[in-house]
Every structure is written in C-alpha cells, then in structure tokens.
C-alpha cells in the first residue's frame, strides 16, 4: 500500500486528478422541451387526459378531461403560488405539503364511467341499465363524498359502506341524492350495523344488506321482524376466479369475505323457510382490485352470472348483479396487464366486457337482464387529487478541491495519476478501497484527525469522478412524511407517478432518491414507476429557488390510511374549480394541515395543559434568573408567543414567509377551523 504524506494545507501547487471533461458535443447546450420531459416521466401514459406538460414547462391540469378548452387548463405552479404566498400579497398563506383536489376531474370521471356503460348497454342491446356506487372507504372526506353524490345524482349513483361510521356518513349524504340510488352495506355486521341499514329502509333509502358471513342472516331476519321492516338482501359469493397479483389476494375460495356455494344454498333455504326469499335481490362478488385484463374480468363475471341465474332458478327475486371493484388505473403509463401498476384495457373495453359477459349468460339461461352495479372507487377518485411537496435540500457526497490535504509520495502518486489518465478503472478502484480502509483504521487508532480523514475521502471522490466511477445519485430531502401522505408506498410498495411540477422545459441534471422528514430509515422513496430506482431531477438552485414535486393518482386510500409517524400530521388541503376568472381557477376551500396541537391531541395528550406547563416553567426560570422587571416581562412574552406558535403551526418545515405570517395570525385565530376561499383571498371561519 503506498505511503501517505501529510502536506501543509498552504502548500504550493499540488495536482488534483481532474474531473472528466465533456466532449465538445456534450458541452454544447442541450436542446430540451416539455415534450421530452413528458416522455421521460411517462406523463402522457399515466396522466392522460387530465395532466400534461405545458409550453412553460409546468404541469397543467385539464379539469374536464378531453372536453377541456385551452383556456380552462390549470397551471399547477401558479396554483402553488396562490396557495403558499402570504395573505398580504394575495395568497392563502398555507404550508406545504398540500393536497389539491379537483372536483371537476371527479365529475368527469363519473361521467366517463357512466358513459362507457351506457354505450355498452345500448350497442349490445342490453335490456337493463348500469347503476354504480362509490365505496366511501377509498376516500371518506366529506367534500369528496358529497361531490360524488351531487355529480352522480343524474345517474342514480349511490354509495357503498363497510362500517357503522361509513353507513351513517352514506345515509346522511344520500338524503340529498337521487331517491333511486343504492346504499350497498358490506363488511362485517353486528346488531347495530343491521339496525342502521334497516333504519335506512324506513328513511326511504335503497339500502341493501349484503351478507358477508352466513351467520349475519339470523341477525337480519330477527331484527327485520322486530323493526317491522322488509329488508332487501344481497349476498357476496366467493368465486373460483381470481388473479394472481397482490390485489387478488382478497378474492377466490380462500378470500376474506363471501359465501361458498354450500353456504349460499343454506342461505336460500333459510330465507325460503322464513318466507323472505323475495328479499334476496342482489348478488355481489369481487375478483380483486386492479384487474389486469378483460379476459380475467370476463371469466369472473361469467361465473358470477351463472350463480345469479341459479339464484333465479331457486326462486330468489334477483334484480341486481354487483361486480364489485377491480376497475384498474394505469399508474405507470405502460398499458400493460403484467403488473399491479397498470391495466391492459380502457374504460370502454372494461364496460363492454362486463355487459357482454352478463348478457351472454343470462340470454343462454333465459333470465331477465339484471341491473349492473359496480364499486369502482379507485377509478373514480384516484385522478382528482394531487399531493404537492417541496425538495428542501440535497445530500451531495462530492468533496471540494480545498478539502484535499493528502497526496501520495513519489512514484506511487505518479502511478496512481497514470492509472487515472489511462482510465484504468480496476486499478483505481483497488487503490481507492485500500486507501479508504487504511485511513479508517488510522482514524480509529487516533492517528488521523477528522479533517485529515475528510481530505482522504475528498481525494478518493475525485479519483472516482475522474474515471466515471462515482455514484451520481443524490438524495433529495423532501418536506413530507411518507407514512402520513403515501402509506401504501411503504406498506405494500404501491408506486405512484412522482414528477417535478415545473422546470420541464429544462433537462434534468441528475438522478435522485427522496428522503422524508421522519426519523425512520423506511421514510424514503427509492422505487419509481418504470422499474426505476432513481428519479430524474433538476439541481436545486443555490440562490434559494424552490423546487416542487407532485405525486399523482393518489386520490384513493392514501388519506384514509395515513398515520402520524413522528407526529407529522395530515397535509393542507385545497379544493380547486376551473374558473373563467383572471387566474383560470378558483380555490373554493382551503383547510390548513394538522397543527402540532392537533396531532398531539390525537395521541391523547392535552396541548393546552402542555402549554401551561411550559409557560409556568418559563415564568419560574425568569424569576430565578433575575434581571430588570421590564426585561423579564418582554423575554417571558417572547417565550410564550414562540411556544404558542409552535403548538399552532404544522409540524412540517416552514419557510420564513409562513413563519412571519403565523406570528401575525397566531393571536387572531385558532387552529380549529378552516378557510373559505375564492379568487380574491380567504376568510377564516371557526369550526
């Protein structure tokens, strides 16, 4: 191993292995365009028809899908400016991260789903109709559910519930919906759940109690007699058909929910004995989420249609076949059925396959065509919401030239330099490994200082860079909690499209992984769509320019599943409608993210008592320290105000503008409320 010679940091000329110089072709200014970024990030694949890279290099939203007029596009960068700018300058003064909801997209998704089934029904001569429901578990947010009921009213669109809070929510919302809309009651049931569903019948709601377990039937029969309500009953069947991906694990004979054929026969017999066989009107099944192909879909629907016809033969008053969820979306833009991230069909092809399969079986069995119902939550809400967050810093392991204070002596140095100039990677890598090992041992023995060790690391990095062997991947620290905002990513390794929402007219200069704010090694994103382990990114501006990223297609499940790891609460949320006003959009509602007090309260702490405890401690310290009375009063006031702001601010990193604004607002408003906004600003409303 070559010896090391310590040299004075002020030594005269020393040679540092140069970084590789770009060729004249590479040195030329690369031409880049938003269309190239669109291809790089597959935006046209997963984003169409709602998201695209505009001519300014920003992501824009087409709120009405293919029906969006050019002047109706919403530029996400302009929207972020409106949301984050201080109120004094016309903004809303909210902190990132923020979830942006687009109700217009939600409306368009509903219209497209209904249109696809309407076309399939009409073109195939199907003698009934399609009537869907939205499973509220996908996103239980009040405004999401209310929007779906309102937008879907013309289609008799209903809701699906799987718990007692969800059925209460659904019953309340459907009081303002179409009287013909279904309320499908799934999930495990006790007496209270069944009573609520039967109460829905008394309230003139079209509740259907779907039996998930055989023993639930006894509850339904008993309580319906006691409450004097004639129930409408459905049953969930365990099909043999299932797909092999992750999302297929809840289907098939071993599935968590549903009745076997043996149990179905017993249910029919028991209903007949109770003179309630006419109450059995719906058959429900679920092949699994993200059904990859229409061939698998057709197999499952055909099997279920046979069961439906058998129930008709046994005397049940069958009217509805509920095909469950499974309508997938294309997370990676590949249009492939080979993974859980994509599907190999369009919305129209999905509807066509369902209608054709039911029609074929029913006509062969001479059974009247049933109403077709689906529970397509993921396909309805995924596109309408965008999570926007900021990259606040990067970790770059490359050292500066001035750090290098160690060189090789004599011939050893010349040999190393020659190996670098020859591009002898093998010899250089061997040298670097041995050098690092020896220096670490020297550091452990106390021979080398931390400055000297850093200098050796710098020299090694220069050598690796010169031969193209250094790791070009940078770590971008993001103002986000993966556990709170993208729980499916770490929980089941679900991937979502992540893209810079601006600078798409510039070529990304590096590749990176994303590291969140939590003190957890799992709090990172190092897997991306397309099978990539890094994401093309732009260098952060040294002058403090901000860099915004968006996570798309996360409108289903992520908010409902998010936790409070490290007590990072939920993000801010804004609701944005397309508008013909000066900005092209109107923020109709803005809700600040959870404050530190909110998340502490959620873990059964008492923020008010904590604040009083800390304030009392500050008072004691000021008294013990002594000093001028006026000075103590001022300092105590500053400490109390700082504590108050910290309890009321979000746990995420804040810009100076947000902190200064919170100073002026902290005495004026409580954290328990929301802002009602329009294009001209916002007014605070107490909860």
TrEMBL record:
<keyword id="KW-0663">Pyridoxal phosphate</keyword>
<keyword id="KW-0456">Lyase</keyword>
<keyword id="KW-0210">Decarboxylase</keyword>
<dbReference type="InterPro" id="IPR009006">
    <property type="entry name" value="Ala_racemase/Decarboxylase_C"/>
</dbReference>
<comment type="pathway">
    <text>Amine and polyamine biosynthesis; agmatine biosynthesis; agmatine from L-arginine: step 1/1.</text>
</comment>
<keyword id="KW-0661">Putrescine biosynthesis</keyword>
<dbReference type="InterPro" id="IPR022657">
    <property type="entry name" value="De-COase2_CS"/>
</dbReference>
<comment type="similarity">
    <text>Belongs to the Orn/Lys/Arg decarboxylase class-II family. SpeA subfamily.</text>
</comment>
<dbReference type="Pfam" id="PF02784">
    <property type="entry name" value="Orn_Arg_deC_N"/>
</dbReference>
<feature type="domain" description="Orn/DAP/Arg decarboxylase 2 N-terminal">
    <location>
        <begin position="129"/>
        <end position="382"/>
    </location>
</feature>
<protein>
    <recommendedName>
        <fullName>Arginine decarboxylase</fullName>
        <ecNumber>4.1.1.19</ecNumber>
    </recommendedName>
</protein>
<dbReference type="InterPro" id="IPR022653">
    <property type="entry name" value="De-COase2_pyr-phos_BS"/>
</dbReference>
<keyword id="KW-0460">Magnesium</keyword>
<dbReference type="InterPro" id="IPR000183">
    <property type="entry name" value="Orn/DAP/Arg_de-COase"/>
</dbReference>
<dbReference type="InterPro" id="IPR029066">
    <property type="entry name" value="PLP-binding_barrel"/>
</dbReference>
<keyword id="KW-0745">Spermidine biosynthesis</keyword>
<dbReference type="InterPro" id="IPR022644">
    <property type="entry name" value="De-COase2_N"/>
</dbReference>
<dbReference type="InterPro" id="IPR002985">
    <property type="entry name" value="Arg_decrbxlase"/>
</dbReference>
């Amino acid at each position: 191993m070559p010896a090391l010679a310590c040299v004075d940091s002020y030594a005269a000329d020393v040679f540092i292995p140069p970084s590789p110089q770009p060729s004249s072709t590479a040195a030329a200014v690369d031409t880049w365009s938003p269309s190239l970024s669109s291809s790089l990030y597959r935006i046209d694949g997963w984003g169409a028809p709602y998201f695209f890279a505009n001519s300014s290099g920003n992501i824009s939203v087409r709120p009405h899908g293919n029906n969006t007029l050019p002047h109706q596009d919403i530029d996400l960068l302009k929207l972020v400016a409106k949301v984050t700018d201080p109120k004094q300058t016309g903004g809303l003064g909210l902190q990132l991260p923020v979830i942006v909801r687009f109700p217009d997209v939600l409306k368009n998704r509903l219209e497209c789903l209904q249109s696809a089934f309407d076309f399939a029904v009409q073109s195939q001569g199907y003698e009934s109709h399609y009537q869907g429901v939205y499973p509220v578990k996908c996103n239980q947010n009040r405004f999401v559910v209310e929007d779906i009921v309102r937008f879907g009213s013309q289609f008799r669109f209903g809701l699906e519930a799987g718990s007692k809070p969800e059925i209460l929510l659904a019953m309340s919302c459907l009081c303002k919906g179409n009287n013909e809309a279904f309320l499908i009651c799934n999930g495990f049931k006790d007496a209270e759940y069944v009573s609520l569903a039967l109460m829905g019948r008394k309230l003139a709601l079209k509740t259907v109690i779907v039996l998930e377990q055989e023993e639930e039937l006894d509850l339904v029969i008993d309580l319906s007699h006691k409450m004097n309500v004639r129930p409408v009953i459905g049953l969930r069947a365990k099909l043999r058909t299932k797909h092999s991906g992750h999302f297929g694990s809840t289907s098939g004979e071993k599935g968590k929910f549903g009745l076997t054929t043996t149990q179905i026969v017993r249910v029919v017999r028991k209903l007949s004995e109770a003179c309630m066989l006419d109450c059995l009107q719906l058959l429900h099944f679920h092949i699994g989420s993200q059904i990859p192909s229409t061939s698998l879909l057709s197999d499952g629907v055909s099997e279920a249609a046979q069961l439906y016809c058998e129930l008709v033969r046994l005397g049940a008053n069958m009217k509805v076949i509920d095909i469950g969820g499974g309508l997938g979306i294309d997370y990676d833009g590949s249009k492939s059925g080979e993974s859980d991230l994509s599907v190999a069909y369009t919305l129209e092809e999905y509807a066509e396959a369902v209608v054709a399969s039911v029609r074929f079986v029913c006509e062969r069995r001479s059974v009247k065509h049933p109403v077709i119902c689906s529970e397509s939550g993921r396909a309805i809400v995924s596109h309408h919401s965008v999570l926007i967050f900021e990259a606040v810093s990067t970790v770059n392991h490359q050292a500066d030239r001035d750090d290098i204070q160690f060189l090789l002596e004599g011939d050893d140095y010349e040999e190393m330099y020659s190996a670098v100039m020859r591009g002898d990677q093998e010899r250089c890598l061997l040298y670097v490994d041995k050098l690092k090992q020896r220096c670490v041992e020297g550091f452990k023995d106390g021979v080398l200082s931390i400055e000297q060790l850093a200098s050796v690391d710098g020299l090694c990095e220069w050598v690796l860079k010169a031969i193209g062997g250094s790791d070009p991947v940078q770590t971008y620290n993001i103002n986000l909690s993966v556990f709170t905002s993208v729980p499916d990513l770490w929980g089941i390794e679900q991937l979502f499209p992540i893209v810079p929402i601006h600078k798409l007219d510039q070529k990304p200069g590096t590749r990176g992984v994303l590291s969140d704010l939590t003190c957890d090694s799992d709090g990172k994103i190092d897997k991306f769509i397309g099978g990539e382990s890094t994401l093309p990114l732009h260098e952060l501006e040294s002058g403090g320019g901000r860099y915004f990223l968006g996570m798309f297609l996360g409108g289903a499940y992520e908010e409902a599943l998010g936790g409070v790891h490290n007590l990072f609460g939920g993000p801010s949320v804004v609701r944005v409608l397309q508008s013909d006003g000066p900005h092209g959009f109107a923020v109709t509602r803005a809700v600040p993210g959870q404050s530190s007090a909110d998340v502490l309260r959620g873990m059964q702490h008492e923020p008010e008592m904590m604040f009083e405890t800390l304030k009392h401690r500050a008072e004691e310290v000021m008294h013990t320290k002594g000093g001028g009375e006026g000075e103590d009063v001022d300092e105590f006031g500053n400490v109390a105000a700082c504590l108050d702001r910290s309890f009321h601010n979000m746990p995420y990193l804040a810009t100076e503008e947000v902190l200064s604004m919170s100073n002026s607002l902290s005495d004026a408003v409580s954290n328990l409320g929301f802002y009602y906004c329009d294009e001209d600003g916002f007014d605070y409303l107490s909860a």
